[in-house]
Amino acid sequence: MTGPALTVEGLSVHYGGVRAAHGIGFTVAPGESVGIIGANGAGKSSTLKAIMGLAPRTVQVLRFGERDLTRTPAHQVVRSGIGYVPEGRHIFPGLSVEKNLLLGAYTRSWKSAARESLDEVNTLFPVLGEMRNRLAGALSGGQQQMLAIGRALMSKPRLMVLDEPSMGLSPKLVGEILLALKKLNEEGLSILLVEQNAKLTFEVTSRCLVMETGEVAMTGTSDQLRGDPKVRRIYLGL
Known about the structure:
alpha/beta
């Protein structure tokens, strides 16, 4: 990619007469990690779902590289090279860990390509390899989150979109997820991360958007926002 990995301009989301997001615009550069933070109900998750084609939207510009996504259905968005880790994980509890992962490779040819990706995911999250034959529903919350991330990685995305990956996890497991996301970003994977945990977001990302009542209220580098008095007061409790 020579330009932005993701370009969003004039994105709005409405559920009936309720406006969830309005006039959202930002870019994610190749290899960049961008965060979206905000309180509950700020429109963060709706923004991600709209990008992925999973929420009713109007948008002026939505591009992944040079590909126009404004009329692209959700399953084709994944084929274009965007991996998605939804809020709540949405794994398949009645299937084994390994089968959950292999389902993430449905956009690719099977056998050698899928096996190579499986080895890479198990290297990133060794516990998934150790539990490959266990039912996914028997995993802990943190292990299920690792599985959801691993499943998205199986499609070999160039951009990973994650919605609240730290939700409900212990600090130790949040730290493990944090290290994994940092490693993926250092290896060149672009990341778009929605989080209510601002401290986590500032650790993982280089740039952030702050959303309030469905609009972008502030933007800046993660270091700038971490030191901003308003952000520290509202989102960090300092």
